[in-house]
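Exam prep: given the inputs below (a chain plus shikimate-3-phosphate), describe the expected output before reading on.
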Amino acid sequence: MSQSWSAPLAPAPVHATVAVPGSKSITNRALVLAALSRRPSTVTGALRSRDADLMIAALVALGVPVDSDGTTVRTGAHTALTGPALVDCGLAGTVMRFVPPVAVLAEGRVDFDGDPRARERPMGTVLDALRALGADVDGAGLPFAIRGRGHLPGGAVTIDASASSQFVSGLLLSGAAYDDGLTVHHDGEPVPSLPHIDMTVEMLRTAGVSVDDSEPNTWRVEPGPIAPVDWVVEPDLSNATPFLAAAAVTGGEVTVPGWPARTTQPGDEIRQILKLMGAEVDLTDGRLTVRGPGRLGGVDIDLHDVGELTPTVAALAALADGPSRLRGIAHLRGHETDRLAALVAEVNGLGGDAEETEDGLLIRPRPLRAGRWHAYADHRMATAGAIVGLVVDGVTVDDITTTAKTMPDFPAMWSAMLDGGRG
Ligand SMILES: O=C(O)C1=C[C@@H](OP(=O)(O)O)[C@@H](O)[C@H](O)C1
Ligand SMILES: C=C(OP(=O)(O)O)C(=O)O
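Solution:
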């Protein structure tokens, strides 16, 4: 059920320490690899949110024993993946793109469906690739069905992954379990979100899988066992960005503990972006502190690798005192919503000046006024509205429950931050 939310205005510069929950991307990869290892694994610091819980439910539906105690999730030993099963993908890209390559290994039929918007998200590439690798698949997008045969020949496949890096990640995660392993070659416009593919490769190697990514646009996964691992999930750096933005737009200071010194999460790029916009950024002993500038500058930046950060950066840009140009993000039209159209509509709906380009956004400074900010079922649109609402009186986000996709406690965390929260 949707729930409208009056975005709180910051009464003073925000000063807070905010601990953010585990990374969606790492949690859902760890869960898939734990399931494929077939031996007991643990995921500690796991995200518990709609996307992660849909992933757990999908794996349970395929016969994987899973038990959890809050953010600790354990998978048990199992000898086979089984159908019949029904997988609800919700609106989770990681579930709709990572689970079908697992489901081909099940014995039996596996049906997939999801939210209405999920039916519009690009998906055909993964299903065509699985067909080319020997799978029996019905459909070109959600809803679709896979008739698993307990194994897949695998081999080499060429895909166009310009619409989503998740096409590559999903195939690679399961590739070692295919008879001949897997070679994925990308042919098309550049693949977005490459750090997310690096995350996949790194986690596969941690699970003992041999991956060759030495050639651009080609990934080779050797067939072989996927080892059980006790995964420890980093905080979700993309979900940290609205809180860091709060320091930037109010001239305050926000610290996020547990910031990794080295990471494949694209959210780490927020450090550079906030610096470019004039904020002070300091990472010492795993604590990232952002101090807001007196005046927030605009930014001209290519976000192709870190598209996930766009709603936060667009909110910052709408509050900056110079123009911004966000480039390289045409693929955001296929995210939870068409994020380019949504951001333009919402910034302009509050009296701002945003314009869609072929591959991004132009946002020029113009004072914003009170109004309704629509979330379009998109968690990051909702948090972008919260950022704007910190400094524009009278902003209402039409549905704050969308944040449950990756951060169910967002409204409480936001209030705690405004009360000077200590994470
Ligand atoms: O693999 C992942 O965990 C993700 C990859 C990216 O997808 P796209 O490549 O479709 O942008 C990112 O935007 C998404 O939030 C998470
Ligand atoms: C694009 C996103 O999600 P998904 O994993 O559903 O693709 C996102 O979280 O910004």
